[in-house]
């Protein structure tokens, strides 16, 4: 009985295929990357969210113009000071651009409005280096030729204008949006510029979105080893840097759900190899640095960096390990962090009693199941009803998920850390691990939990 | 008195959201009700996140999960499966089926599809294509759909109906307090205090306590009268109740500030025959006391107000009462009614007001640069304008998520007015200190 049906899923038996209890020796992967059941109280986002919100949006020096009714643009505006940080704060994420399609545009088409909108936006922000145009659901239905409009507009204003056909109804989750963004950026941007000079030690960091400044603790580690970073994809990225990434010697790939596509495309076209890494926790970060160092013959330098960083962080990690050992955690993330973090929790002596992803594919679940302990629950695309049942039944000491689940967790009396946009991050690499551990310790031991009426 | 509206194809920093989120808020104010969005996944996930951020509360939103097949063949199957699955699993008393640009463009006959569904739950179709109106009209449509589908005449009930619009839980608590002091029984459409200001007490109930019950919505046809606090968001419902069920309606100004609250309480009095009690007159006196106390801190300051139409026009009159100068009054929603309301305030008070309906924050920013302003009032997104122009900033409206607690602090009624006096004066003082 490896697959299991939660009580709340009795009326929706197909959910059983998505819900697995780990048992060693089996090779079962829960059903995943499938259409959400109608009527579900889903936590998933759409293809547009994956394309614009995750991969495209962090590019810091282009106009992100959302072609559709106003909501889709509004919802991806800003993100506060916490997400996708960039050093272009005077423009990036400060402005939100939309064609705000009205009924007449839906009837008669929105191509003219889009063309005018691109020109008007550029006229007001002539310092930008490009325009990204994102199609939302209704654009696919009315059949606007956004590629043609973008080509014409690009001719007119003399900078790249890139069309992303990321209508929300395509695909089953954010995941297809990542793929569309990868393909589009590869096809239309990568290889369009050349670096001033090359070194034998040029790399790219692919698949990190600089959540609360992750890249600002990751990049210095590689730079200290003597490597030069040509481009990041796409945290704090300039479109010009992305245009030159094909000249690196190695792609270091962090998010292995949203960016293997562009890594594979670069490998095929430019013979540029890629190396998947985990940059969370001491063990995995050290392994990543060693693996990359071995590629370049920089082992000695890597050992020096690792030694210094571990000396700085280990005492604090030991402190939190003592406090957190034995605590039971349920991790629900987009996809890769659910398995990146299983090892990290082990370093802190914590037990991962369950793992879930919003849009994981079978390779994500393979990695989760390989790493997670027997008896742990592995569930694909859980909805709020299932999450509630899991939190009540399994009573984890800690739930790590995103904003949409945060207040549900609080309301059920379960300590919570936001793993999507973090609490007091960044959480990556060595110094980030200490912050992550501190946040976990803080919520688990918060004095107010003891005051909650009815909480055992 | 002037009126501007820039004709641009690009919207930069929008002043409105789309219709579905307004409808979702209306449904979440009904007890044991769940909105089911007939659209793609972002149409549920994004509004959910917006509610989470503004209210610091969970929000339960279901989805019919339209994919590529539905875009080609229609979404009827998804919708029917969806309401069945949701009912079997959550046993809600009401499902508000909320359309989107996707389902409206596909052309699904949602009303027809739902008529054929036989389930022990009230199914209320709400037409909210994202390419029409704004979150404000979405809310308006949703509340109207609730009474259209549910209200039935069964015999007088001695209550009044009050539609609140897109106000916060704090405002609804203040509304209930005022009506309680007047010993007036009311049906509040819809009451989000249950869903969006819930206590942390375990075990958590299956549905949050509170909220307007389906029975109360049915009973709205029997009330002695209706008042819309926000005529743009709830006005359509009270109009419908008057036309269909002869429930007399009043849709005046949003009760922000002294005179607007006076008028609201007079209206309640007129409908119910209940006098305004001494406690409320004392609160009125406290508000005026607070206004007089801060006069030299705020008088003659030029204010730009940016909010949903009824809150913006309500605030315009209130800042006049504070001795301030409302130089810009803007809203993201297109509305002739809004323009008329603010024009009336301008002519009654003698202020020169730039009125901007259908405004985005780029246009607002340009107007602020042109006219010169001391204080901006608006949602979280106004912060960057205030920062760029180095002017004072007092938060107001939806969404506010860069500071905590605003959803709990009422702005309506005399007590809400006192909160606003403090907020405005302190914003000006903080700004002076920082300079």
Automatic annotation (TrEMBL), chain A:
One of its GO terms (molecular function) is nitrogenase activity. Belongs to the NifD/NifK/NifE/NifN family. Residues 46-444 form the Nitrogenase/oxidoreductase component domain. Its EC number is 1.18.6.1. It holds the Pfam family Oxidored_nitro. It catalyses: N2 + 8 reduced [2Fe-2S]-[ferredoxin] + 16 ATP + 16 H2O = H2 + 8 oxidized [2Fe-2S]-[ferredoxin] + 2 NH4(+) + 16 ADP + 16 phosphate + 6 H(+). It comes from the Archaea. Its cofactor is [8Fe-7S] cluster; [7Fe-Mo-9S-C-homocitryl] cluster. Coiled coil: none annotated. This molybdenum-iron protein is part of the nitrogenase complex that catalyzes the key enzymatic reactions in nitrogen fixation. It comes from Candidatus Argoarchaeum ethanivorans. InterPro entries: Nase/OxRdtase_comp1 (IPR000510), Nase_asu (IPR005974), Nase_comp1_asu (IPR010143), Nase_comp1_CS (IPR000318). This is Nitrogenase molybdenum-iron protein alpha chain. The gene is bchB_2. Keywords: ATP-binding, Iron, Iron-sulfur, Metal-binding, Molybdenum, Nitrogen fixation, Nucleotide-binding, Oxidoreductase.
From TrEMBL, chain B:
GO terms for molecular function: nitrogenase activity. Transmembrane segments: none annotated. Residues 18-428 form the Nitrogenase/oxidoreductase component domain. It is an enzyme of class 1 (oxidoreductase). It holds the Pfam family Oxidored_nitro. The keyword Oxidoreductase applies. Its EC number is 1.3.7.7. InterPro entries: ChlB/BchB/BchZ, Nase/OxRdtase_comp1, Nase_comp1_CS. Keywords: Nitrogen fixation, Oxidoreductase. Belongs to the NifD/NifK/NifE/NifN family. This is Light-independent protochlorophyllide reductase subunit B. It comes from Candidatus Argoarchaeum ethanivorans.
